[in-house]
Design goal:
The protein has about 500 residues and is α/β, with parallel strands linked by helices. The chain has helices at about 20-25, 50-55, 60-75, 85-100, 110-130, 150-155, 160, 180-185, 200-210, 235-245, 265-270, 295-305, 320-335, 340-355, 385-400, 430-450, 455, 465-485; strands at about 30-35, 35-40, 45, 105-110, 135-140, 170-175, 215-220, 250, 275-280, 290-295, 365-370, 375-380, 400, 405, 410.
Length: about 500
């Protein structure tokens, strides 16, 4: 496998990466199937992150791969400016079905960042087309992540993503974030404390006047800043206030869409209907870049009532790319045929139990979970924020499990593959991620907690194929059997 190692790693300026550290000790993935990556040395790496929250149906899902292959041979590219192709329209209808017809229309983009900027522009243009052009302010939230476009970083609430890029969009304000470890540590599901923080919108309205505010945008569960779960009733309250003041509510569901919460979208989970909703990632099972903005019918209709002509001066060359449409249509089919949502619901309790069983490990200061998302917050090393979790990330990778870290928080988001994975000829339980993630996290957190030396973390991963994965699988079986099954399930 070594021959696939790149000759030089200098030219690729890697995104959101410590380039110098990575290039000194690279982690190179060369293939993926089911729940596993394989690295350049042939080690199997169990994917505890669903490929950066992208891959709900598993890697290399054959139906989706087949659909993309077929489409590229038939229609490699087709513009959607004053033109069209059937798959783009078919997909839009199918997506409306998937949302339960809570939305009437969909606008295609190529990423989550583009979906966010598109939603913000639609919000501004919607008010203008209705004669309320003074509504230009956009309200985001501290610790929100909405991608990296200028719109997204303006409404986003991550200092590091904003500080080097100038004044950003004018007229943006932020709600406070809702994360509070003093009140809500070790919560399963929505925390009790913090609903009142939605009322901060009233303060912002009092300051600027509702007539100047176009939209509020939030992630229903903030993913990128470490799994921040909304307090009970918070999103409903935000909805009430937006309705009261004629402000559009945008849910950024780039992470929470496509079953991450066990429901089609987090909006369904929390039973709150936004006016606009952004998505990406799971939309195509991560296989072809695509994002989308879902719009309520009344927003779209306001544009259609305008004088004849192009209704919205916005779009991307690749909006509705045929390969993305084919991937997304196949993804929706797999969701239905394999009952991916039902499977997610079945996994939820196992998953959350596994996560919360990490309580008491050194330096773990919070465990939180909702749907198939979990956050493990670690006590930062004094003067070195983020180092403890990043060490855990490196250690877990060396142990054959991919986790994701942000600051000193480990974020986990397992795959929801229905079929057993057979990469080593065994039938692993589809819930193995939870068990393996738990085992790896336990080890990683413990070692990171004991201040393991950097040099140790840079050692080459040992071959994990076979022994370790079997170990993980049998540990999971043991764990599960302890909970609800007799001994026969233990395969040691
Ligand atoms: C909530 C949210 N919005 C937007 C984005 C940006 O998506 P992309 O990286 O596809 O531009 C992300 C990415 O993780 C996200 O989590």
């Amino acid at each position: 496998m070594n021959e696939t190692r790149p000759e030089s790693m200098s030219a690729f300026w890697m995104p959101f990466t410590n380039n110098r550290d990575f290039k000194a000790n690279p982690r190179l993935l060369v293939s993926a199937e089911g729940m596993y990556y394989k690295d350049v040395d042939g080690n199997a790496i169990l994917d505890g992150t669903a490929g950066l929250w992208c891959v709900p149906c598993g890697h290399a899902q054959p139906q989706i791969v087949g659909a993309i292959r077929e489409m590229v041979g038939q229609l490699d590219f087709a513009p959607t400016f004053q033109m069209g192709h059937p798959a783009a329209f078919d997909l839009a209808e199918k997506l409306m079905d998937y949302t339960g017809h809570k939305f009437g229309h969909v606008f295609y983009t190529n990423s989550g960042s583009e979906a966010v900027d598109t939603a913000l522009k639609i919000a501004l243009a919607y008010h203008r087309v209705r004669g309320e052009g003074a509504r230009t302010r956009l309200i985001g939230r501290e610790r929100g992540y909405h991608g990296v476009g200028f719109g997204g970083i303006s409404v986003g609430g991550i200092g590091g993503n904003r500080k080097t890029f100038g004044p950003l969009l004018p007229g943006v304000d932020h709600l406070p974030h809702t994360h509070n470890l003093d009140k809500n540590a070790y919560t399963v599901g929505e925390p009790e404390y913090g609903t009142h923080l939605a009322d901060e919108l009233e303060r912002i309205v009092a300051l600027h006047d509702a007539s100047t505010i176009a939209a509020v945008i939030v992630e229903p569960v903030a993913g990128s800043t470490g799994v921040l779960i909304p307090p009970k009733g918070y999103l409903k309250r935000l909805r009430e206030l937006c309705t009261k003041h004629g402000i559009l509510l945008i849910f950024d569901e780039v992470i929470t869409g496509f079953g991450r919460m066990t429901t089609p979208f987090a909006a369904d989970y929390f039973d709150v209907e936004p006016d606009l909703m952004t998505t990406a990632k799971g939309l195509t099972n991560g296989m072809v870049p695509m994002g989308a903005v879902f719009s309520k019918k009344y927003i779209h209709d306001a544009f259609m009532d305008a004088p004849p002509g192009i209704e919205l001066f916005h779009g991307y060359t690749y909006s509705g790319h045929p390969l993305a449409c084919a991937a997304s249509l196949a993804t929706l089919q797999v969701f239905e045929e394999q009952d991916i949502l039902g499977h997610a619901k079945n996994m939820q309790a196992y998953w959350q139990d596994a996560v919360h069983s990490l309580k008491g490990l050194p330096h773990v200061i919070d465990l939180r979970s909702i749907g198939l998302i979990a956050g493990i917050e670690l006590d930062p090393i004094a003067g070195k924020p983020g180092t403890r979790a990043f060490n855990a990330f490196k250690q877990a990778f060396a142990d054959g499990v991919l986790i994701r870290t942000t600051g000193d928080i480990i974020a986990l988001s397992p795959l929801r593959r229905r079929r057993a994975d057979t990469h080593d000829g065994r039938h692993h339980r589809p819930v193995a991620t939870a068990g393996a993630g738990k085992t790896a996290c336990r080890r990683a957190v413990r070692q990171a907690g004991h201040g393991i030396k950097e040099s140790r973390l840079n050692y080459k991963p040992r071959k994990t194929r076979g022994r370790t994965l079997r170990g993980y699988a049998s540990q999971w079986d043991a764990y599960q059997s302890l909970r609800d099954r007799p001994r026969r399930l233990i395969r040691v």
